[in-house]
Design brief:
Elements lengths: L60 E4 L18 H7 L5 E4 L2 E4 L2 E3 L9 E5 L5 E4 L8 E5 L4 E4 L2 E3 L11 E5 L5 E3 L2 E5 L7 E6 L9 E3 L2 E5 L7 E6 L5 E3 L2 E12 L7 E3 L2 E13 L13 E3 L2 E13 L6 E3 L2 E11 L5 E2 L8 E3 L7 E4 L62 E5 L18 H7 L4 E5 L2 E4 L2 E3 L9 E5 L5 E4 L8 E5 L4 E4 L2 E3 L11 E5 L4 E4 L2 E5 L10 E6 L8 E4 L2 E5 L7 E6 L3 E4 L2 E5 L2 E5 L6 E4 L2 E3 L3 E7 L13 E3 L2 E3 L3 E7 L6 E3 L2 E3 L4 E4 L16 E3 L7 E4 L35
Family: Belongs to the polysaccharide lyase 9 family.
Cofactor: Ca(2+)
GO molecular function: carbon-oxygen lyase activity, acting on polysaccharides; metal ion binding
C-alpha cells in the first residue's frame, strides 16, 4: 500500500490547494514485481487456512461462529471458526452467514463470485459480528478482500482495542472489482501514530474497478491532525459512495484519488472532518489518472474546515449540485474546474447535533434539506432503510424525513484520542486477569494498581489494561525530576476505577508520591455498593504531580452536605505538596445539588488547571484555596455549576501569604450561579484576561483589590449541543464569539483533543 497524502493549506491571499501526490490503497504485494512504497504487511496472514479440496463446492450457504472450528464443514450445525476459512470454502453464489460474536481481524478473503453469482459475507445481526484487533497484530488491514463480485454486509470493525503489534490503518478494504461494502460500522481506525489509509477503502492497485460503499457509519478515523487518513477512500473508477454517515475524520471524509473517475458521491451526511469530500486523481495505477465525470450531489457537509475540494488531475465534466454546506471555517468549495450549483448554505437542523458522535443526525421537520435533492442522484432507500423519497423530492443527506423522527441508526459515542504511552526504562503491567503474585511483566501482569505502585521505581510506566478495578487504594512511591512514574490507562478511559463491594476509604485513588502522572483513567463513583461514600476521585498529596486526560464523574453525589469538603480531582498541600497540574480532564456530576462544600477541581498548591471540561458541580467547577498561589487557569470550559472559578486562599496549612500571581485566561464560564470570583486572601498581581463569561445568574465576575478583568467576551458561547441535564457537546460552532478571542499568554500547546493551539487562540477547552 502506498500512502496517499492530501494537504490543504492556505497562505495569505491564496485559494489553491497544495498537493503532495502519492498513493492510498493496496495491501500486501502479491508478487515481487509489485512494490508499493509502503507495505501494509509483509508476511502471509497467519489465520488463512490451506485450501480444502474435499469441500463440497456446490454449497450455497456457509456458516461462521465463535463456537465453530475451521476443521468443521461450515454447516449451520458445524460452523467454521473464522471468516478466512469460509472464504476458502466459498464458491460463486455462496452466502457466508457470520453469527454474533467477536472475531479477530487481520485476515484476507480472496475468492471471487461472478456477475450472476456473487459471494456475500453477511453479519446475521447487524453490527453484532465484531472484527477486533488480535492479541498481536501482524497486519495493518482489519479485513483485506481481494475477491471480485463480493459483498460485505453489516459488520462492526472496531480498532479501538489495539493490544500489540501493527495498528490497523484500514478497516474494510476491497481491491477486487464490482464489490460492495454496506451497512457496516467502521470506527477507531488509525488512532495511534499518523498512518496512511482510512475506514473503508476501494482500491485500484490490483486493477479493481466499480466498487461501492453504501449505507455505512464511519467515524473516529485517524490520529488528530493526521493528513493521510480518510473516512472512505475510493481509487477505483465507476464507484459509488452513497448514504453513509461519516464524522470525526482527521483528513477527508470521502477521498477520490488514483484512478477514480465517473464516481457518484451522494446522500452522505458528513461532519467534524478536516475536509468533507475530495475529488481528485493522480498517481494512477491503471488509467491516465484524470478524475472526470464524477458527480457530487445531495450531500450534507457540516462543521469542517473545507467542504468539497478538487485536487490533482481533474477534468472539466465533474458536477457539484444540490449539496448543503454549512460551518466551513475556510471554504465550502475549492474547485479547480468544476462549478457548484444549487448549494444550500444553512444549518441542516439535525435532531440533535453532537460533534463527537452519539447524536441524532436525522432531520427536523423544518430542515432546509428536506425535498431539496435531485431525483436522478437519489438512492432508493436511506441509511435506515426507509423508502426515498418520502415527500415531494428526496432529502439531502443520509436520512429521509418521513413526517416523524424514525429510530436512528446507532452511533456509539467514540472514545477520545488517547495520550501516547510514556517511554520509560522500566515498565509494569496491570490487568484484571493478572495476579499480585505475578512479576508485573507484560506476560505476567499484576492485578492491582496498588501492587504496581509498590514495585515501581523512578522512570517507570505502569500500563493498566482496560477493565474494571476496585477503587479505594493508595499509591505512595515517588519518581524523580528526571525519572517520573506514569500510571497509564492503555485505552483512554478503558481502565475504570469503581467502588468496591464494601468501601472502607473515602478516596477512589489516593496518591502520595512525588513526580507522578496519572493518565487516561475513568473514575466512576455512581454505583456505591456498600460502606463509605467516596469524597474524592483522584487525589494527590505529593509534589510535581500531573493528573491528565482522565474522566472523573459521579463523585460524592449521595454525600451528606455537612461542611466537610470533597472534590472530583484534588491537588493538596496538606502533606506539604507543591505544584500540581490538572490537564485535559473531563469532570462532571459532582456532589449533591446545592452543596457549597463540594468542588470539581480543587487545588491548594501552585501549578496549573488547563484544558479541562467541567460541568454539573454542586459548588465550584474550579476552586483554589488553602495554600494556593501562582496557578495558571487557562482554556477550561466550565458550566452548570454553583460557581465557575474561585481564586482564593485561606485556612492555611503551610503558608500565610495570599493567593497571588495567579492568571485566569481563555476560559469559558457559562450558566453557573456565580461566574469568576476572588475570595479569602488574594494579592494584587492576579490577572483575568480574555475569558468568555456569560449567563451566570448572580454575577459574572467579582474581583478584589481593585483588580479589573480585561478582554472579557460577554456573549453566548454557541456550544454545539448544550444541555444542563444530559450529555452536552461543548465544542463551539463556527460562529462562536469565542473563536480567535483568546490570548497566547499561558495558552497550552494543544487542546483537550490534542489539536494545536495557535494564534488566534480560541477561548475554552476546544480549538
Amino acid at each position: 500500500m502506498k500512502s496517499s497524502v492530501n494537504y490543504l493549506s492556505q497562505t495569505a491571499g491564496a485559494t489553491a490547494c497544495m498537493i503532495l501526490l502519492s498513493a492510498c490503497g493496496g495491501g500486501q504485494s502479491d508478487s515481487a514485481s509489485e512494490a508499493p512504497a509502503v507495505m501494509l504487511a509483509t508476511t502471509q496472514l497467519s489465520d488463512q487456512p490451506a485450501a480444502d479440496a474435499s469441500y463440497n463446492a456446490a454449497a450455497t450457504a456457509l456458516y461462521v461462529a465463535t463456537t465453530g472450528a475451521d476443521s468443521n464443514p461450515g454447516t449451520s450445525a458445524k460452523p467454521f471458526k473464522t471468516i478466512a476459512r469460509a472464504a476458502q470454502a466459498a464458491t460463486p453464489g455462496t452466502v457466508v452467514h457470520v453469527a454474533p460474536g467477536t472475531y479477530e481481524g487481520g485476515f484476507r478473503t480472496s475468492t471471487s463470485g461472478t456477475p450472476t453469482a456473487r459471494i456475500r459475507y453477511v453479519s446475521d445481526t447487524k453490527w453484532a459480528a465484531k472484527i477486533v484487533p488480535p492479541a498481536t497484530s501482524a497486519n495493518a488491514v482489519a479485513w483485506d478482500n481481494r475477491g471480485s463480485y463480493v459483498d460485505i454486509d453489516g459488520f462492526d470493525v472496531d480498532g479501538s482495542g489495539h493490544k500489540a503489534g501493527t495498528r490497523w490503518a484500514v478497516g474494510l478494504y476491497t481491491a477486487g472489482s464490482f464489490g460492495t461494502v454496506t451497512n457496516s460500522h467502521v470506527h477507531h481506525i488509525g488512532q495511534g501514530a499518523c498512518a496512511s489509509g482510512g475506514g473503508i477503502g476501494a482500491d485500484s492497485y490490483y486493477k479493481g474497478t466499480g466498487n461501492d460503499v453504501l449505507a455505512n457509519v464511519v467515524h473516529d478515523i485517524g490520529a488528530a491532525g493526521c493528513k493521510t487518513m480518510s473516512g472512505v477512500f475510493v481509487n477505483s473508477a465507476d464507484s459509488d459512495v452513497k448514504n453513509n454517515l461519516i464524522y470525526a475524520v482527521s483528513q477527508a471524509a470521502v477521498l477520490l484519488w488514483h484512478d477514480a473517475a465517473r464516481a457518484a458521491v451522494s446522500h452522505n451526511t458528513i461532519f467534524a472532518a478536516h475536509t468533507g469530500i475530495v475529488v481528485g486523481g493522480g498517481d494512477p495505477y491503471v488509467s491516465n489518472g484524470v478524475n472526470d465525470y464524477s458527480r457530487v450531489a445531495n450531500n450534507i457537509v457540516v462543521d469542517t474546515q473545507y467542504g468539497v475540494v478538487e485536487q490533482g488531475n481533474v477534468g472539466s465534466n465533474n458536477t457539484y449540485t444540490n449539496n448543503l454546506m454549512h460551518q466551513q471555517s475556510a471554504y465550502p468549495y475549492m474547485l479547480l474546474k468544476g462549478v457548484a450549483v444549487a448549494t444550500i448554505a444553512a444549518a441542516p437542523q439535525f435532531v440533535n447535533y453532537v460533534r463527537t458522535g452519539g447524536g441524532d443526525y436525522q432531520l427536523q421537520a423544518t430542515s432546509p434539506a428536506i425535498d431539496k435533492g435531485l431525483a436522478g442522484d437519489a438512492t432508493a432507500t436511506d441509511l435506515n432503510g426507509k423508502a426515498r423519497p418520502a415527500g415531494a423530492g428526496p432529502d439531502l443527506g443520509a436520512y429521509e424525513f418521513n413526517g416523524a423522527t424514525p429510530s436512528p441508526t446507532p452511533t456509539p459515542a467514540p472514545q477520545p484520542v488517547p495520550d501516547a504511552a510514556p517511554a520509560t526504562a522500566n515498565n509494569l503491567y496491570v490487568a484484571t486477569t493478572g495476579s499480585d503474585s505475578n512479576s508485573g511483566a507484560q506476560g505476567s501482569p499484576l492485578r492491582t494498581i496498588a501492587r504496581a505502585s509498590a514495585l515501581a521505581k523512578p522512570n517507570t510506566t505502569v500500563h493498566v489494561a482496560p477493565g474494571t478495578y476496585a477503587g479505594g487504594f493508595k499509591t505512595t512511591t515517588s519518581g524523580t525530576a528526571s525519572g517520573r512514574i506514569y500510571y497509564y490507562s492503555t485505552v483512554k478511559w478503558g481502565a475504570k476505577i469503581v467502588p468496591p463491594a464494601s468501601s472502607s476509604n473515602n478516596i477512589a485513588w489516593d496518591n502520595r508520591g512525588n513526580y507522578v502522572d496519572i493518565i487516561g483513567f475513568e473514575v466512576d463513583g455512581s454505583k456505591l455498593q456498600g460502606g463509605t461514600v467516596w469524597r474524592s476521585g483522584l487525589y494527590t498529596g505529593g509534589s510535581y504531580d500531573v493528573i491528565r486526560g482522565n474522566r472523573v464523574h459521579h463523585i460524592a453525589n449521595t454525600l451528606a452536605c455537612n461542611g466537610s469538603g470533597a472534590s472530583a480531582i484534588g491537588v493538596d498541600s496538606y502533606y506539604k505538596g507543591i505544584k500540581g497540574d490538572v490537564i485535559n480532564n473531563f469532570v462532571h456530576d459532582i456532589g449533591p445539588a446545592g452543596c457549597k462544600y463540594i468542588q470539581g477541581i480543587y487545588v491548594s498548591t501552585s501549578g496549573s488547571v488547563v484544558g479541562n471540561v467541567v460541568y454539573r458541580v454542586s459548588e465550584a467547577a474550579i476552586h483554589l484555596w488553602h495554600d494556593a498561589t501562582n496557578v495558571i487557569i487557562a482554556n477550561n470550559t466550565v458550566a452548570a455549576s454553583g460557581t465557575g472559578i474561585v481564586v482564593g486562599a485561606g485556612d492555611f496549612y503551610n503558608r500565610t501569604a495570599p493567593n497571588d500571581y495567579t492568571h485566569v485566561v481563555n476560559n469559558i464560564v457559562y450558566d453557573n450561579r456565580y461566574g469568576i470570583t476572588e475570595q479569602g486572601s488574594t494579592g494584587t498581581h492576579n490577572t483575568y484576561r480574555n475569558n468568555l463569561v456569560y449567563q451566570n445568574s448572580i454575577y459574572n465576575i467579582s474581583l478584589k483589590n481593585g483588580l479589573q478583568a480585561t478582554g472579557t467576551v460577554s456573549a453566548d458561547p454557541q456550544f454545539v449541543g448544550y444541555t444542563r441535564s444530559g450529555t452536552p457537546d461543548l465544542h463551539l460552532r463556527a460562529s462562536s464569539p469565542a473563536k480567535g478571542k483568546g490570548t497566547t499568554d499561558y495558552a497550552p500547546k494543544t487542546d483537550i483533543e490534542g489539536k494545536p493551539v495557535t494564534a488566534p487562540v480560541t477561548i475554552g477547552a476546544y480549538q
